[in-house]
Design goal:
heterodimer, A: 161 residues, alpha/beta, Rossmann fold, 5-stranded parallel sheet, 18% strand, B: 154 residues, Mannitol-specific EII, Chain A, 5-stranded mixed sheet
Amino acid sequence: MSNPLGNILLYIDGSESSITAAQLAVTMAKTYGSVLRVMYVVNENLLSELLKAKVFVQMEKMDYERDLEEDGKRYLNYVVKLGDRKGVTVETVLRKGVVHEEVAREAEEWNADLLVQGELGEVLSLRDSFYEEGERILRKVKCPVMVVRGREKIERLFDET
Amino acid sequence: MKLTDAMGPENVKLDMEATDKREAIEELVELMAESCERCDADEVLEAVLARERDGSTGLEKGVAIPHAKCDAVDRLRIVVGVSRGGVDFDSQDGKPSHLFFLMIAPMSESGPHVQAIAKIVKMIKIDRFRERLIKAKRPEEVIEAIDRVENGEE
């Protein structure tokens, strides 16, 4: 029987909860011998919306896009280092676009067995436009999704692994 | 991150006194500096004015979102100002601006800054939200209104 958790995809956005999710994903990859791939998406769609609403000017949008890309590289490297500490090789993916669509595409194309992501935000509005990315991802991806909560317990688990 | 994590009633000024764009920005920056000892008001002011030179952040429906990135603040800072009489802020529809959201973030916090600006942009599309802010009698009412929308209660 093939490993039911052979491919674990981790989505991070730099939030504290996504870092907690990273710790659990590394722990799981080590425990189950999974391949761990971590991805960050520059939310190009959001920047374009702000440009369209004329809140941003073109130069500013490009400036923020560069900033977010640099942020993404930093977060991805952080997870690679988390993996190094546990002897887990971490593959990285940096994309630009509509976040939930990019995550769903990656999960499908890579045949992810599990998507791991941080806690959903506190905003649980019924207004569609207020759905946060974590929630959109949950609705869009076709593979099993693990939403990670419980920072203290996971930190302990990570340290003990 | 919730907007109300980055601001409280002390970051709200009802009855702004400014009569023009420059004064409005100065009044908002002054309010920000009052609640942030480590913020450099002059540097924040210069960053906001520089951004405005690239294009006005006066939007439609009486709302303006002056913003900038600069390391004169320690974290994302947000202040809200309400001008009953309105201020000419070079808005998109040419009408006076009544609601001001000044948002300043350090250079290294682009992610939360973009998210916060986007959230405000969505909020101000709600007519009742804008009305609640303009009619607020206490700063706490502004914070409550923001909190209500963030929690999906509006």
